[in-house]
Fold this sequence. Notes:
alpha/beta, 7-stranded parallel sheet
Amino acid sequence: MTLCVVITGGASGLGAALVKRYAQAGAKICIADLHAERAKKVIKDNAQQAADLFFQPCDITSQADVEDLLEAVKARWGKLDILINNAGVATGGSLAFEDIEQWQWVLNINLLGMVRMTQAFAPLLAMQKNTHLINIASQAGITPIPYMASYNASKAAVVSFSETMHLELAKDGIHVSVVCPSFFATNLDESMRSTQPGVHDLVKKLLSRSDIDADEVANIIKSRADAGDFMILSHKLGKRALWLKRLMPTNRYMAMMKKKLQRFGPKK
């Protein structure tokens, strides 16, 4: 059976790596993104391996765009096996530097964009059994660090939303996974908003430190999603951090993190 897959934010970064991975599996893939030129390159690079590959412009903050995407998928395939909610943006800065507009912007994309997509596509996924919803959150949503409060909060909300959907959509034959990757080399910093000096450099530094790349993260996502995992962690240090948080008494864990992060922050 040929899988039909929709990937939001599929024109670059992790999204493009996921397109590549599912194309290697011979899937039919829709790239839902704002960047047509980048999508053209992804299609050119993967068209020979994918059973079908097309681009549908979509702004996930627009209900009309999401509905147009749904109609395009229905018209082309008549079904959907996997929805990957990957599109997202980054924000940073201390509490004083993140105004309400920045909070609203990141929540509208990272959280509400995912809600719009899920509400629109869940009925299509439910039309057949053993379908899959894969939500891309972040390590920041489970083990947050300073100077990224709005981003951390948006990704923590994605984790909670995914937990709820995992329970709620099970009756419809939809399996839900949430992915919590740590920092790795990608173009996330391009979309990042911050008014605090030094934050962009801090994020670029964190992105460059990873020992795995987007292709490896995409391989892990597909492998663990195929195995039926709910929470997918891609980084060894991320797994260790989560286990420490789960196993240690909360006060002890927070004291340890405050000490560890004393010198962490943007350079002035």
